[in-house]
Amino acid sequence: MSLPSIIAAPDPMLAKSIKAIALGVGAGLGTIGPGIGVGFIFGKVIEAVTRQPEMRDEITSIQWLGFALTEAIVFYAFIFGLIAFFLG
Q: Is the pTM of this model over 0.70?
């Protein structure tokens, strides 16, 4: 199967498989940033608690807010990928 024949008469299964691969790659790339962000958040929380142990409760509450907002990015990337897959 040469490239002109793919462009001229695309196979529906080929198009669907390409969209599935794109969804997987997009979802995978969409999780790299939040993964780094979550690691950064927890690393800084450990540093902050070791420097000021009396602020542990306040730091922990802020930590969970940052974690939740960072993880929301993963869900947005996944949902947008699904939308693009099924509506594209």
A: no
